[in-house]
């Protein structure tokens, strides 16, 4: 039975309607099943009992003695009522015997005899629980008792997961769709490349990737960096000699470096090169191990930068000045970000908020009394605000001088006392602002914004700046702006897509139970509207439960590394079945579990180490 | 598909011309309340309540140490045979003043084969099943009997079917110990057991060829009745009785002195990993002895943990003590693992025999299938 699946795509010319013929799954699957139909290769038979019946969603099978499987293996079972095959993901394996109690086993072994082998071993079997992925004829009648079960081969795995649909779409549209996301390895040695559907990663069908897991074990940053590289390489692939309209040169990548110098050499090859097995893994996935190209490092100014303007406040070694820019914030750069700077200060009655509003109004409106206020020092010592605080003039409304004095105290602390040197009264000629650079963000370029050495409130400010600037560029794309002549590139075209990666997302988009964040609204906006605008958020955090539900919920692709059992009891993981959750607690370093809208069940993958220089 | 459809013509034949009082709620399983093992052993040994004849050579000891001979050292017993039966009351057939219960039996016999590495399996040829209808031939007219028999002979189902006369005498029901209780349903249940025993015997006959070829011994569940008193069953197997008659008295002679011991006294002094001397019964056609496979201290009652072993001896010659020791040692090793928790006779049960029983029982049609599948033809109002 042929089906037609209509889908709509956004394009600059309007909505483009494309027809993806959904040819019978059987076509690909029959191909998939070649060579694995013999009972000799079977690993067991389906079993349904009174208490554990098979259903459309799951089935169980017993394993032939001597065979080994593991959770996340993908198996194929003869459906039993027709000649179709049902694919499923092994979620758990039980061993049971005919002993009704442990005491029976003790007694049966001659009352605790340890040395002798039982004359007749206790009869037992290993039974695997399987979640149904797909059926070749789309018959979801339960797998029948006694049906033969095999390991799926690579084509079978793709069919089971729905990857064959992506491949078909790719062939029919002649544009790259399949983004390699890692390698599935099964217990019998079968390997299959796991692909993500590009339209569910970069939009318009879905977007955003979120990864969570224990620091150090989950390899979150490495995976995102691999995935971005994979996306960029995939976009340049030719399908039947044809290239997509949107290529890697139309995509900008913005990476926020939050830890040490992890992302400060992503354009350099690893020292000594990648190990051979890693190179082989890259190539097995159809990719070339290569560092990022056209990289710009945005590094914060620090206290040392005042003496040496070429010295940034970053973990050494500092990237070459030819490919890096130093950024700092003057008062006027921060007018719209003062709320972010003071975000962690309690403001129950909104007094600070009101003062920030007055300052913004004065400076942004360039009101007469505020025209001479150029620096932080001016704001504190020589502004209408200072005069109101000292009682030289009457503050508007019910604003009390002591409230303004409190505002100054916090501001001094933020700008002078507890700062890393990010705030300056006058920026050096060579320095820039994040907004300067990112408001003219270029496709085909990668921008690393380093905030690793900044204080929390400074990090919030900078990341907020990144998010608002990029969102501003994309949401305002197409607007007719003022002609700035030689001060601007009149031919500037924003890239068609931008990928933003940030670790420790919980700081910026905490769960509703957590503290407030001034940039939460911006992040929610990106997560909910970004896919249609072309802004893709790739985010990471240790605990998904610490991040706002809507951000996690809007990430079409969710990735999990090793996760603590206590974390798994949180509601953020409710959509995973209990067996998969338990497996998350045992994942090896570098193993990840991926959920994706096209996949019918989560899968376990491994991926190659990123091909750039890592200092640690 | 109704697996009992082939039975319908026979039921139609039975109800044609006779009156059927159908069991309420279709077929009902008939449960025997007493211990069948002990009951049959009592019948088998009714003529041998005084035991005095030693049947081993050189012998000389009442209690002989038989330390376990593990399968890993020598896989002595490689086949384990059991049978199982389940009977159902279908109704009462009435013709004039005569009547007979109509019962159905599902019978099976299976042999578990144990490989040298301990793996067990049942070959298709070692699992035999039969479905029988049982009724008293004397209580029905020839036409009903003949038509029902013909219908069953012509039935083409996955399992062979047959008609059994519950009145027919066999090695058991004509004995004194069978008792005065001739209640028709009990008698029918016994006949089903007897048919099952015959099925086991047929299976054993084929397995003896395996013994002849490889030397592998066969353990059969239950004692050796007269059904095995044939020359072809003269080697290669033992009968293992878990629950045996306690009525034997042993007259033991030594250096001119004879002492009498009850079975209770005899077994109370039998220690774990020991066997008794081997005795004869049935004029020496069967040699038997007792083996304690579990220590008394671990069990609730001194007679628990002991199995009675019967060995065919049609030649009535003395049996080698070495052979008896060898078989006993192998049987002692069979104590691991046990079906504890699954069978109340676990203390003297052999696990592979338990497995054979499970294979048969798991192959029976369930009560639900049977009740739904067997229907009397529409009865006259």
Structural features, described:
The complex is a heterodimer of chains A (616) and B (381). Chain A is an alpha/beta fold. In chain A, 27% of the residues lie in helices and 21% in strands. Chain A is built from 18 helices and 20 strands. Chain A has a ten-stranded mixed β-sheet, with helices on both faces. A six-stranded antiparallel β-barrel of chain A has the order 3-4-7-6-5-8. Chain A has a two-stranded antiparallel ribbon with strand order 1-2. In chain A, helix 1 runs antiparallel to helix 3 (154-161) and helix 13 runs parallel beside helix 15 (520-533). The longest helix of chain A is centred in the last third of the chain and has 20 residues, at 456-475. Chain A is elongated and about 100 Å long. The two termini of chain A are 55 Å apart. Residues 1-26 of chain A have low confidence and may be disordered. Chain B contains eight helices and 19 strands. In chain B, strands 1, 2, 5, 6, 7, 8, 9, 10, 11, 12, 15, 16, 17 and 18 form a 14-stranded mixed β-sheet that branches. Chain B has a three-stranded mixed β-sheet with strand order 3-13-14. A two-stranded parallel sheet of chain B has the order 4-19. In chain B, a hairpin with a 5-residue loop joins strand 7 and strand 8. In chain B, helix 1 (8-15) packs antiparallel against helix 3. The model of chain B has no long low-confidence stretch (mean pLDDT 90). The A-B interface holds A 65, 98-101, 103-105, 107-111, 113, 116-123 and B 68, 70-72, 114, 118-120, 294-295, 298, 333-342, 351-352, 355, 358.
């Amino acid at each position: 039975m042929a089906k037609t699946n209509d889908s709509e795509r956004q394009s600059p010319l309007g909505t483009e309607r494309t027809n993806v013929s959904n040819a019978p799954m059987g076509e690909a699957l029959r191909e998939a099943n070649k060579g694995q139909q013999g009972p000799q290769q079977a690993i067991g038979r389906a079993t349904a009992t009174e208490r554990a019946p098979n259903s459309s969603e799951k089935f169980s099978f017993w394993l032939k003695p001597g065979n080994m499987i593991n959770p996340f293996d993908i198996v194929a079972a003869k459906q039993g009522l027709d000649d179709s095959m049902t694919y499923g993901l092994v979620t758990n394996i039980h061993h049971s015997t005919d002993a009704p109690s442990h005491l029976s086993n003790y007694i049966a072994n001659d009352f605790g005899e340890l040395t002798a082998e039982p004359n007749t071993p206790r009869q037992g079997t290993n039974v695997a629980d399987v979640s149904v992925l797909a059926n070749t004829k789309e018959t979801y009648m339960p797998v029948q008792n006694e049906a033969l079960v095999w390991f799926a081969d690579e084509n079978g795995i793709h069919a089971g997961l729905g990857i064959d649909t992506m491949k078909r779409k790719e062939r029919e549209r002649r544009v790259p769709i399949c983004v390699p996301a890692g390698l599935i390895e099964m217990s019998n040695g079968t390997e299959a490349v796991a692909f993500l559907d590009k339209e569910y990663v970069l939009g318009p069908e879905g977007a955003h990737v979120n990864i969570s897991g224990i620091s150090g074990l989950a390899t979150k940053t490495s995976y995102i960096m691999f995935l971005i590289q994979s996306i960029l390489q995939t976009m340049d692939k030719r399908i039947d000699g044809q290239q997509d309209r949107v290529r890697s040169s139309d995509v900008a990548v913005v990476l926020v470096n939050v830890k040490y110098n992890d992302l400060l050499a992503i354009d350099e090859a690893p020292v000594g090169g990648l190990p051979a097995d890693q190179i082989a893994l890259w190539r097995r996935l159809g990719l070339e191990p290569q560092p990022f190209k056209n990289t710009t490092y945005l590094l914060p100014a620090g206290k040392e930068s005042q003496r040496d303007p070429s010295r940034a406040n970053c973990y050494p070694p500092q990237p070459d000045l030819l490919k890096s820019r130093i950024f700092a914030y003057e008062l006027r750069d921060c007018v719209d970000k003062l709320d972010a700077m003071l975000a962690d200060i309690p403001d129950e009655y909104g007094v600070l908020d009101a003062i920030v509003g007055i300052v913004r109004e004065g400076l942004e409106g360039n009101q007469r009394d505020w025209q001479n206020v150029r620096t932080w020092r001016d704001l504190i010592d020589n502004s209408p605000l200072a005069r109101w605080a000292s009682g030289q003039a009457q503050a508007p409304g019910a604003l009390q001088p002591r409230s303004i004095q409190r505002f100054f105290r916090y501001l001094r602390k933020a700008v002078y006392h507890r700062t890393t040197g990010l705030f300056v009264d006058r920026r050096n000629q060579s320095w820039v602002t994040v907004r300067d650079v990112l408001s003219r963000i270029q496709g085909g370029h990668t921008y690393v914004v380093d905030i690793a050495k900044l204080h929390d409130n400074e990090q919030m400010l900078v990341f907020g700046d990144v998010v608002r600037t990029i969102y501003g560029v994309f949401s305002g794309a197409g607007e007719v702006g003022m002609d700035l002549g030689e001060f601007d590139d009149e031919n500037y075209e924003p890239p068609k897509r931008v990928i933003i990666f940030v670790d420790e997302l919980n700081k910026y988009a905490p769960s509703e139970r957590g503290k407030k964040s001034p940039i939460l609204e911006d992040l929610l906006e990106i997560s909910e509207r970004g896919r249609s605008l072309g802004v893709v958020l790739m985010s990471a955090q240790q605990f998904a439960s610490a991040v706002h539900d809507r951000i996690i919920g809007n990430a079409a692709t969710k990735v999990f590394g090793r996760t603590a059992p206590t974390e798994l009891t949180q509601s953020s993981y409710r959509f995973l079945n209990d067996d998969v959750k338990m497996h998350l607690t045992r994942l090896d370093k570098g193993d990840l579990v991926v959920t994706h809208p096209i996949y019918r069940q989560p899968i376990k993958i491994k991926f190659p180490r990123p091909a750039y220089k890592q200092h640690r | 598909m109704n697996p009992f459809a082939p039975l319908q013509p026979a039921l139609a034949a039975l109800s044609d011309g006779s009156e059927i009082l159908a069991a309420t709620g279709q077929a009902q399983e008939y449960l025997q309340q007493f211990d069948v093992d002990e009951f049959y052993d009592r019948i088998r040994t009714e003529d041998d309540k005084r035991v005095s004849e030693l049947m081993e050579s050189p012998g000389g000891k009442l209690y002989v140490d038989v330390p376990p001979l593990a399968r890993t050292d020598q896989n002595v017993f490689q086949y384990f045979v059991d049978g199982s039966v389940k009977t159902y009351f279908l109704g009462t057939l009435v013709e004039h003043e005569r009547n007979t219960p109509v019962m159905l039996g599902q019978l099976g016999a299976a042999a578990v084969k144990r490989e040298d590495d301990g793996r067990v399996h049942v070959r298709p040829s070692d699992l035999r099943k039969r479905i029988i209808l049982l009724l008293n031939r004397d209580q029905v007219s020839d036409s009903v009997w003949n038509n029902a028999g013909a219908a069953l002979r012509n039935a083409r189902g996955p399992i062979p079917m047959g008609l059994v006369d519950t009145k027919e005498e066999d090695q058991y029901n004509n004995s004194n110990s069978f008792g005065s209780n001739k209640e028709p349903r009990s008698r029918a249940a016994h006949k089903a057991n007897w048919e099952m025993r015959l099925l086991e015997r047929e299976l054993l006959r084929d397995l003896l060829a395996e013994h002849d070829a490889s030397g592998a011994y066969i353990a059969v569940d239950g004692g050796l009745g007269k059904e095995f008193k044939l020359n072809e069953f003269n080697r290669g197997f033992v009968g293992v009785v878990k629950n045996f008659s306690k009525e034997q008295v042993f007259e033991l002679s030594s250096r001119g002195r004879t002492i009498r011991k009850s079975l209770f006294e005899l077994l109370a002094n039998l220690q774990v990993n020991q066997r008794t001397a081997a005795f004869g019964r049935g004029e020496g056609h069967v040699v038997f002895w007792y083996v304690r496979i579990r220590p008394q201290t671990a069990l609730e009652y001194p007679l628990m943990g002991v199995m009675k072993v019967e060995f065919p001896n049609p030649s009535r010659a003395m049996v080698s003590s070495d052979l008896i020791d060898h078989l006993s040692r192998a049987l002692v090793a069979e104590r691991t693992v046990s079906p504890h928790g699954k069978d109340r006779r676990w203390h003297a049960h052999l696990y592979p025999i338990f497995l054979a029983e499970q294979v048969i029982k798991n192959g029976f049609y369930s009560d639900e299938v049977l009740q739904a599948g067997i229907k009397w033809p529409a009865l006259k109002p």
